[in-house]
Amino acid sequence: MGVMKTSDKLVDEKMIVASAEKALADIAIIHKEVGKVIFGQESVIEQTLLAVLSGGHALLVGVPGLAKTKLVTTLATVLGLNSSRIQFTPDLMPSDILGSEVMDQDENGRRSFRFVAGPIFTQLLMADEINRASPRTQSALLQAMQEYHVTVAGQRNDLPQPFHVLATQNPLEQEGTYPLPEAQLDRFLMQVDVGYPELAAERQILLETTGLDEAEANPVLDAARLLDIQHLIRQMPVSEKVVDAILSLVRSARPGNGNAATDKNVAWGPGPRAGQSLMLCARARALYDGRLAPSIDDIVALAEPVLQHRMALTFAARAEGMSVRDVISSLVNQIKG
Prior knowledge:
The chain is α/β, with parallel strands linked by helices. It has two domains: 15-235, Rossmann fold; 236-337, Magnesium chelatase subunit I, C-Terminal domain (Helicase, Ruva Protein, domain 3, Orthogonal Bundle). Helices cover 49% and strands 15% of the residues. It contains 14 helices and eleven strands. The chain has helices at 6-37, 42-53, 68-78, 94-98, 135-147, 182-185, 199-208, 223-235, 240-252, 260-265, 272-288, 296-307, 315-319, 324-336; strands at residues 58-61, 83-87, 99-105, 111-117, 124-128, 149-152, 155-158, 164-169, 190-193, 266-268, 312-313. It has a five-stranded parallel beta sheet with strand order 2-5-8-1-9. It has a two-stranded antiparallel sheet with strand order 3-4. A two-stranded antiparallel ribbon has the order 6-7. Strand 6 and strand 7 form a beta hairpin. The longest helix has 32 residues, at 6-37. The radius of gyration is 22 Å and the shape is globular. It holds the Pfam family AAA_3.
């Protein structure tokens, strides 16, 4: 294999810059279309979009009625993806998500099994109130989210591309919920916390959504274009300084790595997938902001949504009223310095 000549490298860089500019224009239109329907919630929209642009899944956590479902259906429209929605309930079975084998009989009386695909065979799956289903059903999503195929009756069935799960979850204090297993939480690129809207946004919601006409978002991309942008994000360069900051942050969040506060307060910390997630999301955030390479600021901004669902506090730390966010915040201050 020959050495890349400087002229080739320049052509390559020019192509990446041109692709990035085109992607940036697309992202600006996506933002405008989503903003027609979802008012305020800037960071929620940004983080959810970053998860999809990075090729991953997102968990949206908040009390009912904060337009989480509306955001997901709007994104499906704007990104030009086919979508389906599963309302998770305590009696939902794995086959209700994955699909099942049914027996057919032909005119000669010969019987055979046929696979009937479940709602998971879509490009954007909305898993509504995911923590209302039993752990057995929640785990039916696991293989699909990680391996992009499902196995039913010993047969492998590949999922469409791209495939994203945007799940919503009620805060665990609410009745009738099962906490998600740690292994499944780790499959989510980010946990996006959805809070109550600001006053101005809530005023706009009142005025815009109670009349005869409601604004509708228009498609901006299609699946092929989204895959192109995801591919571009994976090509963006990441400086040694940013890679070191990611490693330093993720490793300092694990007990037994020389950080006294973490050893005292953290029961278990983020695995290597947290670093991979930070790396991808930082590139996506840079592109979202019109930059060609991520900076330490991107790591600082993404630390909480990427790490908070991948670590747990000790009983003693929880008893003292400490939160995972407090721990992440103090670790982030160390990489800033």
